């Protein structure tokens, strides 16, 4: 796959879609039916809508052949798109802003999460005497991958306490059993990760939560406003070249989000791969209750979300400080609005 050029521009939009039949493309013929999606930590609830769209054949219903590549963290998934091996990323919205700061234009076109769901916790084993964020100075913090949304959240919490990323060591531990093992073995002193990993560690009494962004109220407390989380984003070049394919992707994801609003625990368990459950179905369902509110009910970006994300990055990341970031080029609700007129759960 050739490396793509990243050009700013306006996404060309097409007509309404018809969902439910693999060949019902009211939005127009797909420019390409094969789409490569990169994701970092697919088993996490952060990306659950992507798994639902895949496992319940919503992508196939749109005529899409989606190949999903799973990486250890969102920053690695981003690199796949920049390098040209992926067309679309299921990742954190703030990555579109970091890319724009480097003159690479990517745009979010359907939101998966309206709260980051990320939890920062300290190990009761290695930090039994923890009293404040300042105690993290000189410590090792596990994140899914350096540069991922988990390290962004941790960096922001550190910045609010007067610390920088240079005051700690970020260690990539992934988003599953590896993260749990790193905490339990004492390889790390703190962990920024997501459910079901964090609920499992909470229930076993091995961590103390110090910052939590699993609910809307907690997210507002941490970030000061609506903080967009997981989304589908692609280069502006891809969107402009493939508006009908982009619409089909949005249709499938909106359908997945609607399905999640009414799905029972049994339906959810029967849909996701067994490996997602970490060997404990009750734990998975308990974790789901923690984060269900964080899922976007409709895929729409909240009006103040992009500004909150930028403000968060500017608090600690020199990449975006002083850079003229044009938020309007980082997201669009156009595809989702079109999907909402036709998509049924």
Structural class by secondary-structure content: alpha/beta
- Fraction of residues in helix: 25-40%
Instruction: Give me the side-by-side strand order of the main sheet.
Output: 2-1-3-10-4
Principal-axes shape call: globular
The radius of gyration is 19 Å
Count of discrete alpha- or pi-helical segments spanning 4 or more residues = 14
What is the N-to-C succession of helices and strands? EHHEHEHEEEHEHEHEHEHHHHHH
CATH homologous superfamily name of the largest domain?
Periplasmic binding protein-like II
In total, how many domains does the architecture comprise? 2
| CATH topology grouping of the largest domain | D-Maltodextrin-Binding Protein, domain 2
Strand residue content: 15-25%
Ranges with pLDDT <50 over ≥5 residues? Answer: 1-26
What is the first-to-last residue Cα distance? Answer: 34 Å
Query: Could you report the average pLDDT, rounded to the nearest whole number?
Result: 91
Would you identify the CATH architecture of the largest domain?
Answer: 3-Layer(aba) Sandwich
Indicate the CATH class of the largest domain: Alpha Beta
For the sheet with most strands, the description reads: 5 strands, mixed
């Amino acid at each position: 796959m050739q490396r793509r050029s990243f050009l700013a521009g306006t996404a060309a939009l097409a007509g309404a879609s018809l969902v439910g039949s693999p060949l019902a493309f009211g939005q127009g013929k797909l420019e390409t039916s094969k789409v490569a999606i990169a994701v970092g930590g697919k088993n996490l609830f952060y990306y659950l809508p992507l798994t639902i769209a895949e496992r319940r054949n919503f992508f196939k219903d749109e005529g899409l052949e989606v190949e999903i590549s799973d990486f250890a963290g969102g920053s690695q998934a981003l690199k796949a798109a920049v390098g040209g091996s992926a067309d679309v990323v299921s990742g954190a919205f703030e990555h579109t802003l970091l890319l724009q700061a480097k003159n690479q234009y990517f745009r979010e076109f359907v939101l998966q999460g309206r709260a980051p769901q990320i939890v920062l916790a300290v190990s009761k084993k290695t930090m039994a005497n923890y009293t404040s964020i300042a105690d993290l100075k000189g410590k090792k913090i596990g994140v899914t991958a350096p540069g991922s949304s988990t390290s962004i959240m941790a960096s922001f919490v550190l910045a609010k306490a007067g610390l920088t990323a240079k005051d700690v060591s970020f260690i990539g531990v992934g988003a599953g059993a590896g993260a749990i093992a790193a905490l339990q073995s004492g390889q790390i002193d703190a962990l920024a990760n997501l459910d079901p990993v964090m609920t499992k560690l909470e229930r076993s009494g091995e961590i103390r939560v110090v910052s939590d962004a699993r609910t809307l109220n907690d997210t507002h407390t941490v970030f000061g406003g609506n903080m967009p989380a997981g989304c589908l984003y692609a280069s502006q070049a891809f969107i402009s070249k493939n508006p009908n394919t982009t619409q089909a992707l949005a249709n499938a994801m909106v359908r997945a989000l609607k399905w999640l609003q009414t799905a029972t625990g049994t339906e959810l368990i029967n849909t996701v791969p067994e490996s997602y459950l970490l060997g404990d179905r009750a734990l998975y369902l308990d974790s789901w209750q923690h984060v269900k509110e964080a899922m976007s009910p409709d895929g729409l970006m909240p009006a103040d979300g992009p500004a909150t994300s930028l403000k968060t990055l500017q608090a600690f990341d020199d990449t975006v400080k002083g850079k003229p970031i044009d938020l309007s080029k980082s997201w669009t609700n156009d595809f989702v609005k079109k999907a909402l007129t036709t998509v049924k759960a």
